[in-house]
């Protein structure tokens, strides 16, 4: 056998594809794999953005309108921030009336300051799909900053309280 290709007798001739100025590009061409320059959007400066799996938790961005409306119409609860990690983007609230800790996502925090352990907060609740058995805190607002602690604003400025 030789390493050179030889034409097969009796095969049909291959016609080159028609390329016109208005024809769409092949999905495998490198130009199609990059988004157009006009569709560029700024993203959050998260250092872990490329390594994270999309979260199944209903953040403010992907929560349905009906779930948002139900949460807004619900009662207002109070509690104390148990922990919150800005780098991870979530934390937990201990309810004032006792019970299990409640999850809180960074997108659901209102106000100027990043919550720290011991801050008193008010919040509403929303169920977490798909089974709607667990709940998370939404519309979280810090009502009283814990005295004697340093608080950071979302812009990165540190304030002593």
Features:
two-stranded antiparallel ribbon; 6% helix; mainly beta; 27% strand
Outline the secondary-structure elements.
Blueprint: H1 65-73, E1 77-85, E2 90-95, E3 102-105, E4 120-127, E5 135-144, E6 150-152, E7 158-160
Parallel strand pairs: 3-5
Antiparallel strand pairs: 1-2, 1-4, 2-3, 4-5, 6-7
Q: How would you portray this structure in words?
A:
It is a single chain. Helix content is 6%, strand content 27%. The protein is built from 1 helix and 7 strands. Strands 1-2-3-5-4 form a 5-stranded mixed β-barrel. A two-stranded antiparallel ribbon has the order 6-7. The longest helix is centred in the middle third of the chain and has 9 residues, at 65-73. The radius of gyration is 27 Å and the shape is extended. The model has no long low-confidence stretch (mean pLDDT 75).
């Amino acid at each position: 056998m030789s390493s050179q290709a030889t034409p097969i007798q009796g095969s049909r001739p291959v016609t080159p594809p028609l390329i016109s100025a208005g024809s769409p590009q092949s999905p495998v061409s490198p130009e199609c794999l990059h988004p157009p320059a006009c569709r560029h959007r700024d993203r959050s400066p998260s250092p872990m953005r490329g390594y994270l799996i999309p979260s199944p938790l209903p953040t403010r961005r992907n929560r349905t309108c009906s779930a948002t409306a139900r949460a807004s119409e619900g009662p207002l609860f109070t509690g104390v921030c148990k922990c919150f990690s800005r780098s991870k983007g979530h934390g937990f609230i201990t309810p004032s009336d006792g019970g299990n800790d409640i999850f809180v996502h960074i997108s659901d925090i209102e106000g100027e300051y990043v919550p720290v352990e011991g801050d008193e907060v008010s919040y509403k609740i929303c169920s977490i799909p798909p089974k709607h058995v667990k709940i998370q805190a939404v519309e979280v607002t810090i009502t009283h900053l814990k005295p004697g602690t340093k608080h950071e604003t979302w812009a990165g400025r540190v304030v002593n309280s």
